[in-house]
Amino acid sequence: MVERWRKETHCFNFREGECTITLRDIAILTDLPIDGDVVCVDSTPPPKVVANMSGWQHFIWTVTGLCPPEKGDHDADGHPPLSKGQVSITWLTAEIRRKHNPEFGGIPLTEESSERDKDIYARIHILGMIGGVFFLKKSNNLISNSWLKIILGSWDDMGSLSWASACLAHLYRSLCNASARAVKEIDGAMFIVQFWAWEHLPWIAPKVDPDKEWGPDHPLRHETYGCM
């Protein structure tokens, strides 16, 4: 699919003609919202407000309740928790699980947990979806700290953004960068390319059992078409 991508037209070039992934495809496959404000990421480092924390350390602590060390420790993938304006989602998820895992002396997250704990857990989960699913980078587990500025906003503000258009723009850029001859790696939401190809190129799609009913009550049928 990458070899057939033409960055001049943002289309796949097939023998039968050209076609491309559209905003409608993103919405159907992922259920991300189309309508809303533009997703605009501010990469300006925050000012230092605490003596023993850098600006990003304090900002991450404000969002997640966790303060990543800038030196010394490394996550399970060998990356420092905080490096060059990026935070390790591997470190974040490991720390939040340890915080709520009784085996490590943590307190399990339940309905009775504080709203602060629920809020932090939800924001880290969304951060993982942003950096690990829809806006994936070649570094795999490192996420730009700039996303934290959006995550720190209100739930209404986050829900009012056009995430589908941002995902599509990032996907186009990833395909354009990867189509260069010397490039050997690709980032971005490649699962969307795979699902789109299965739907539009049925001869490469996995076979579906015709006896299996994919009705609305099926346990594997979710809200998004991509899950099916």
UniProtKB/TrEMBL annotation:
It comes from Linum tenue. InterPro entries: AminoTfrase-like_pln_mobile, MAIN-like. Coiled coil: none annotated. Residues 1-210 form the Aminotransferase-like plant mobile domain. This is Aminotransferase-like plant mobile domain-containing protein. GO terms for biological process: meristem maintenance. It comes from the Eukaryota.
